[in-house]
């Protein structure tokens, strides 16, 4: 499949079908969901209660559907209309809020909340405010998981090379101490491994464009991205591979 300039431009918008198509292609070539779901199952097993799941940035609902059977109620925040259509098919019983997290009204107290790969789309100065807002939706004794890619992995080195943007959830830890009392208790940083394997150059370029669709970032030329992919990800057999391990900041809300 040839990825022309028009298609590449459309990937930059999260609220269209081209973005979802590129996202689906990324998921088809990565083991991220398998490794993340195994990690999440261990977290769920340790929860003191499993009444409500809150999935912020639920996307097409793959993880929501995996976790839903463990909880009595499922609430999702997903502003992308194409993603919401897919989410409704994946997890019909989920209650879906269409506004972005900064504008959403959520009537829930979650035992487990996910803020999964959302902070890329939120200005760095608002990370702590956003986290505090989400923690207000977490029940005492509940857990919020904030997921971002490890900034030192191969994928994020590519993002930094082309956009200059740097995303590191570890920077948030020091800011949590300034949040209102009672919101943040113990915090831990976990690492979840992930690897993308592209079956062809065209697939890998489409995925690279998806990963480079950072808000307000410059759009690199196809030639530049192709040269980078060939240099850093080529397996010399027509396939391409890169690591994109995730950081998970686990934040517990103190029990009363």
From TrEMBL:
Keywords: Methyltransferase, Transferase. Gene3D superfamilies: Vaccinia Virus protein VP39. GO terms for molecular function: methyltransferase activity. The keyword Nucleotide-binding does not apply. Transmembrane segments: none annotated. Pfam families: Methyltransf_23. InterPro entries: SAM-dependent_MTases_sf. The keyword Methyltransferase applies. One of its GO terms (biological process) is methylation. This is Class I SAM-dependent methyltransferase.
């Amino acid at each position: 499949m040839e990825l022309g300039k028009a298609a590449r431009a459309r990937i930059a918008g999260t609220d269209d079908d081209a973005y979802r198509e590129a996202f689906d292609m990324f998921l088809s070539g990565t083991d991220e969901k398998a490794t993340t779901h195994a990690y999440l199952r261990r977290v769920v097993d340790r929860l003191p209660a499993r009444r409500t799941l809150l999935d912020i940035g639920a996307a097409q609902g793959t993880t929501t559907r995996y976790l839903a059977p463990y909880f009595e109620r499922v609430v999702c925040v997903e502003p992308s209309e194409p993603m919401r259509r897919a989410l409704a098919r994946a997890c019909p019983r989920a209650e879906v809020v269409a506004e972005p997290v900064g504008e959403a009204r959520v009537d829930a107290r979650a035992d487990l909340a996910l803020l999964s790969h959302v902070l890329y789309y939120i200005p760095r100065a608002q990370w702590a405010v956003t986290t505090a807002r989400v923690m207000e939706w977490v029940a005492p004794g509940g857990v919020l998981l904030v997921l971002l890619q490890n900034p030192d992995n191969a994928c994020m080195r590519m993002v930094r090379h082309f956009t200059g943007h740097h995303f590191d959830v570890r920077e948030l830890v020091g800011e949590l101490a300034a949040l209102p009392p009672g919101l943040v208790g113990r915090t831990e940083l976990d690492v979840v491994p992930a690897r993308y394997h592209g079956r062809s150059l065209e697939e890998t370029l489409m995925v690279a464009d998806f990963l480079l669709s950072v808000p307000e970032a410059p759009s690199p030329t196809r030639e530049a991205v192709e040269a980078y992919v060939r240099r850093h990800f080529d397996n010399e057999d027509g396939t391409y591979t890169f690591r994109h391990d995730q950081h998970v900041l686990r934040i517990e809300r103190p029990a009363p």
